[in-house]
Amino acid sequence: MESKTHILFIVQISLLILTSAAIAQDVQWLQYQSSREANRIIGRVSGRYIDVMYEQPKGIELPELNCNKPLFVRWTTPMVEAGGLWIALDRSRGSGPCDRLFIDSNGDGNLKNETLVRAYRADSRHAYFGPVKVTFEGENGTITYHLNFILCDHDTRRLRVSPGGWYEGDITVEGARKHCVLFDYNANGAFDDKSLEAVDCDRIQISKQGRQDTRFVGNYVEVDGVLYEPEIARNGAYIKLTKAKDVKLGNVRLPESITEFSAGGENGLFNIKPENGTGSLPVGKYRINYWAIERKDEQGQPWKLQASSSSDKGSFDIMEDQETELSIGEPIISTMAVRNRSGTYSFSQNRKGQLDERISLTRNGARPAAPKLHIKSEDGAYNQTFDFRYG
Questions:
Q1: Are residues 230 and 265 in the same domain?
Q2: Which stretches does DSSP call E strand in 62-116?
Q3: What is the pLDDT of residues 19-74, one digit of tens each?
């Protein structure tokens, strides 16, 4: 009898261990990294510009400063109870940009006890800092985060704030090994922001290591053609993927000349290869990210016209079992502006889409030669051809 009880106890312990391991595999942990060159590592990030203030914030104690007129900036973040952290910028010399920085790194509302951060590079109009460490208090302990700063000391003084840290690591998706990267695109300290506005969405990559496939953080993320509902830690430390079920869909109708289409919002970012001018999306609100038309010329050379959009003119709704038609694609609007300064004329040419999209044109994957401008007077006495130049 004692022997049977002992065996049953071992079986119960084994089942408990196996069950715990299965639960733990659902949450996949990532590793935190930081660098002053974060943009080069994780790709272009939005960051944000914050106007400086000249008056000392009330209730904020300051460290010993060199200059009489320091600058102040409040970086907003949902990761601290006060809703933001104060930054003071000081100057080590009598002229040039402020090259000394103090930040309320622990969120206690006090700058007097903070460690000085010196600019690692400075010129006549800019000072560069980072990565600068700050900490947040989370449910399970202290959270580390880093920021990179560029002080732009022009006519309008502004501080550019961008993330100096990100999370990445290998995860398993349906038995396949993938590399996952999370980055705080809008530089507010959190990694799970969703929005209709692309600049306010954080970013996620789930792909083979070395290959970038960046999507918006949203209600869904597509991996190898399968739709998942991601759960992302607010601090970016882990991700959990659950196969999406019973997703309500609607159709988007496009001109048949469109070969690629991308739209994003709180549902995430979706890249579609339309079939007969139609693609499907989960029900929700979206904004056009880009579209493209590809053709070959008479010599068989491939041309690609791509339009990118961020304005609300590209917003649309997808409703269940309904079709939403978008007026995009051709014709492309080409404009030319003429300026006369003291008898000298300058010309600039621009292309835009029907919704004011920005247009780029490539031939064989490279930018073709700039167009020419032919000017001829009515009587033919003046007849000249000029080359436009990029830049």
A1: no
A2: 71-76, 84-90, 100-103
A3: 333 333 489 999 999 999 888 776 777 789 999 999 999 989 999 999 989 999 99
